[in-house]
Design a protein that fits this description.
Blueprint lengths: L3 E2 L1 H8 L3 H9 L6 E4 L2 E5 H9 L14
Antiparallel strand pairs: 1-3, 2-3
């Protein structure tokens, strides 16, 4: 079964503040994130896989602008 993290759990895992996690969610910078019943949940496996592949927390969102 998929383990979903709360904002607090995600912040603790990444050693960031809740405010930073919310900002990253709004910017679309955290993989595996979705709203469930009006609350954000983050798929732990997808988040860890992204970090394992070199995902960086300071990355700017990617755009298709040329």
């Amino acid at each position: 079964m998929t383990e979903l993290l709360t904002i607090d759990e995600t912040a603790a895992l990444l050693k960031l503040s809740d405010r930073t996690i919310y900002a990253m969610l709004r910017a679309g910078r955290l993989p595996g994130a979705a709203k469930c019943s009006g609350r954000w949940r983050i798929d732990k496996a997808k988040l860890l896989a992204w970090l394992g592949k070199g995902g960086e927390l300071g990355d700017e969102p990617k755009t298709n602008e040329h």
